[in-house]
């Protein structure tokens, strides 16, 4: 691959572009898997010595599952997942507020699935050859020009490539340096200088294997999903989800600005197990259908508990020169619909398609490819922000208007309207256009896949050669 101390690449080459990926999260790993299949050289650099994924629930929708099927990973994904058929909403006294059902798989082809996040990370990371992923490689700076891009790491090493992908999360170091440079040049939109908004914080964890006698819901084939909403004086919502292995993922969400306790938690900077334990002790009496949150806390190792912010921001600038942003580095959605991870992996699919079409590898062709990626993805992501806000209000909202909205949506909104919205939401499901497409599932008409320009050129060239041979 020539990633070790290589000279800068020539201005134009017939070789595929060399891609440097900053961040070994889900988006970076998924992109690496796609580039591996596309025959595009790449390397992944992670600033930490080890990734510790949040040990909580994660959701994937039909919008990304066909890409997993393409890659031959769908069956393994399903082995540690449960289907999300419906969910029940309760008051803090466990009185049912309403239920929310999912659109059936015979229409959309796939069910939404839920699982513990570390399971997915383990599955994806094992797909990356060991020699292509580098841990403890913190990027200090990068430089780019018409000849290439160079990364400089904290261990005083450097590396050259053709394209830099910032897949390093909501507080992306790649984005921060790129924006700093653009701001100095007067090229950064004012909107991209704002802070991300924070509406919620969350404590999440996954239990050890539970006794099915005490927790019979863990034996259900589909995921048992419960949302419990605190009373009018409380900023808390707490949720439980069953996952394979007789485990329960739990999530406690605090809405900021509702009560003093929420703002105290927001101001706390001690993101350590002891501080998390203190918060857990204060809410262990909260009721759940199988007992109390404390029952689950007692069978959850404290190192498997994390506190996270629910932030949201849609940045306008996703690329400049040879640098491109994907996932949370480009757009942070509220994690109310599972859209964050899904969009990061959709980004990876579309970016891989655009990189595959680069030929020959030149600065101009790279800029065209990165712009094509942004043009296709920006509109698709932007359309999801209103839906993520509404979903967050339904799931976690505590204001009077949010409580009214929740009851209306769960109990009085016609099923036909829910079905129409769900069909609209699941119609966009991009796949790698350089691989055989996954077989069509369900009756829903999905948005057509954009064909690969390179594949079309190669097919036309092959036909010309056959014709010439016949003549």
Automatic annotation (TrEMBL):
Domain of life: Eukaryota
Biased composition (Basic and acidic residues): 455-464
Keyword Flavoprotein tagged: yes
Pfam families: FAD_binding_3
Region (Disordered): 452-471
InterPro entries linked to this entry: FAD-bd (IPR002938), FAD/NAD-bd_sf (IPR036188), FAD_mOase_fung (IPR050562)
Coiled coil, from the record: none
Keywords: FAD, Flavoprotein, Oxidoreductase
Domain called FAD-binding: residue spans: 19-184, 300-360
Family, per entry: Belongs to the paxM FAD-dependent monooxygenase family.
Name of the protein: FAD-binding domain-containing protein
């Amino acid at each position: 691959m020539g990633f070790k101390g290589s000279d800068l690449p020539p201005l134009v080459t017939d070789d595929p572009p060399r891609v440097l990926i900053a961040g070994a999260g889900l988006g970076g790993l998924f992109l690496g898997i796609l580039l591996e299949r596309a025959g595009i050289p790449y390397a992944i650099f992670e600033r930490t010595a080890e990734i510790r994924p949040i040990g909580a629930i994660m959701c994937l929708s039909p919008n990304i599952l066909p890409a997993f099927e393409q890659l031959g990973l769908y069956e393994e994904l399903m082995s540690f997942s449960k289907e999300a058929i419906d969910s029940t909403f309760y008051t803090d006294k466990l009185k049912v507020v309403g239920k929310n059902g999912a659109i059936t798989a015979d229409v959309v082809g796939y069910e939404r699935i839920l699982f513990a996040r570390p399971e997915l990370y383990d599955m994806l990371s094992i797909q990356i050859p060991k020699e292509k992923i580098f841990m403890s490689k913190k990027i200090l700076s990068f430089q780019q020009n018409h000849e290439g891009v160079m990364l400089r790491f904290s261990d005083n090493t450097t590396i050259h490539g053709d394209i830099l992908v910032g897949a390093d999360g909501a507080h992306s170091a790649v984005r921060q340096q790129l924006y700093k440079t653009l701001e100095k040049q007067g090229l950064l939109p004012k909107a991209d200088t704002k802070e991300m908004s924070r509406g919620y914080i969350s404590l999440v964890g996954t239990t050890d294997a539970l006794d099915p006698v005490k927790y019979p819901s863990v034996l259900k084939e589909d995921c048992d999903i419960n949302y419990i909403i605190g009373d009018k004086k409380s900023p808390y919502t707490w949720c439980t989800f069953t996952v394979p292995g007789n485990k329960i993922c739990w999530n406690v969400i605090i809405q900021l600005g509702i009560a003093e306790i929420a703002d105290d938690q927001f101001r706390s900077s001690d993101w350590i197990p002891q501080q998390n334990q203190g918060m857990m002790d204060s809410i262990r009496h909260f009721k759940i259908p199988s007992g109390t949150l404390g029952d689950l806390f007692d069978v959850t190792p404290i190192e498997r508990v994390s506190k996270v912010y629910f932030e949201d921001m849609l940045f306008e600038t996703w690329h400049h020169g040879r640098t491109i942003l994907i996932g949370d580095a480009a757009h942070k959605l509220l994690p109310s619909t599972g859209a964050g991870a899904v969009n990061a992996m959709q980004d990876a699919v579309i970016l891989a398609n655009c990189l595959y079409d680069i030929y020959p590898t030149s600065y101009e062709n790279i800029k065209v490819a990165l712009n094509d990626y942004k043009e296709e993805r920006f509109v698709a992501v932007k359309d999801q922000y209103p839906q993520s806000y509404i979903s967050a209000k339904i799931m976690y909202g505590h204001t009077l208007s949010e409580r009214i909205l929740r009851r209306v949506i769960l109990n009085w909104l016609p099923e036909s309207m829910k079905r129409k919205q769900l069909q609209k939401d699941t119609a966009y499901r991009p796949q790698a256009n350089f691989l055989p497409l996954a077989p069509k599932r369900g009756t829903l008409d999905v948005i057509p896949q954009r064909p690969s320009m390179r594949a079309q050129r190669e097919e036309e060239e092959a036909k010309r050669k056959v014709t010439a041979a016949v003549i």
